[in-house]
Amino acid sequence: MKPKNIFTHSFSLKHLTSLRAFRYLESFSDKAYLLENVHTPRQAHSFLGVSPTKVLRIVCGRVYLEINGECQELFEDPLVAMNRFIDEHQMSSRMESLRGEPVYGGVVGYLGYDCVRFVENIPMPESSVAMDDAILMLFPVSVTFEYDHEQVIITGVVIDDNSRESTIATVGALKAELERLNEIPEDLESTFLMNEVSAQQFDEEELKTYGEVHEREHCEKVEKIKEYIRQGDIFQAVYSIRFNVPASSSELAIYSYLKSINPSPYMFYLKLGKEVLMGASPETLLRYDGQYLETHPIAGTRRRGRDAQDDERLSQDLLSDAKETAEHLMLVDLGRNDLSKVSKIGTVKMNRFMGIEKFSHVMHIVSVVQGEKSDEYTPFEAMLSCFPAGTLSGAPKVRAMQIISELEKTARGSYGGAVLFSGFSGQFDSCITIRSIYVRDKIAHIQAGGGIVADSNPKDEYQEIINKAMSPFKAIKLANQQNSTMRGVNI
Length: 491
Prior knowledge:
The chain is an alpha+beta fold. Helices cover 30% and strands 31% of the residues. It has helices at 18-26, 78-87, 164-182, 194-198, 204-209, 215-230, 251-261, 308-319, 322-340, 379-385, 397-407, 458-481; strands at 5-12, 31-37, 45-50, 54-59, 62-67, 70-74, 106-111, 134-139, 141-146, 151-158, 236-246, 266-272, 275-281, 284-288, 292-295, 298-303, 349-358, 362-372, 394-395, 418-423, 428-432, 436-440, 443-452. The chain is globular.
């Protein structure tokens, strides 16, 4: 059923932070979300929601719909069910005037990498971690932090006539409680000291002990991939390793440190009952603004420099590295091919080509591919044309994924899939699930990978995986050291 009406309240931001608001609200619900962009200060925003009214779950390929606590199985294709779930919660004709406006309620969830088996005939290895294939949640009420306007906006969307009064009441109650919290300064115990993080020493050797695959076996797998490349099967494949790290702290404490250590365009925290999926992804899978589709291939990595001069030297070294640039070009071509399938003929173009984007610990080569969406496809279907990303699979994509399934020990789960948001007013945005942490039963699961090409050095590729896994590992270790005491950053 399509949304009918919208109600909003707003107030000026004073002492309230997104994490503080979320910490309060999620205590009343077993499912909730927090999505943030904290990489670019001018574009920084946070939005969150609790108590979804509908939940669509894909479990072992079977489809389940939960409404008001009651669950029923839907006997249909998982991708068809997900596409319909998103599409039927776009605005009605009565709300068309709001198209493009920042209405931040809608559908939030993830698709695991293993959902590719619903598209291609690719056998998946057994899973070592209990996790749904995918989950989509409908949130009619949301809270938005607009930092550039120093405002908090509470939005309630009426889905049907029966929910009108409850939606109005919920929005009013949220406004009253959050305004109360907004007047209370955060105590000193919650102030995060960045020098406390920078002073910590983190042992790579400890991280390695948590890996499901160790260095020697990883190097053997890299050599097998290079043999496939020599035989002409593929040009590249992305091989990854999972790390299973004890997590004694609260999940929100881990997220607080992750956000401080690795602020990213796609910060996400999905509370999913007894488990949590969180991350700090740098990479857009697919974005849709109502007319144009965008995907952002990222390939090519260097560490950040010790100072500005070293940073610039490393940037130039990255752009002049023949292996890194060749790998990036391959994935740009793959992104253009993916978008061309769902874009109007002749509209696919490069908006940015091989720019350097810098993050807290690493820098990447980034390009932006754009196309005007064909009317034949929904945004979700357009996202599936790019799924999974070439930067997490390889090229040619299908054969690379077959080799990944052969060589990786266990199913990837959420890693390499997508976290997505589909707003009531037509926005659609998704990121690749990387730099992520999945927490269940006090074990934090991290996964990281790297693209293997013909001249890859196995030891260097292993070190790249360790480098990518370090920021989530640091967040877990710091949170563990706090013994579940939230001394999180003011966010």
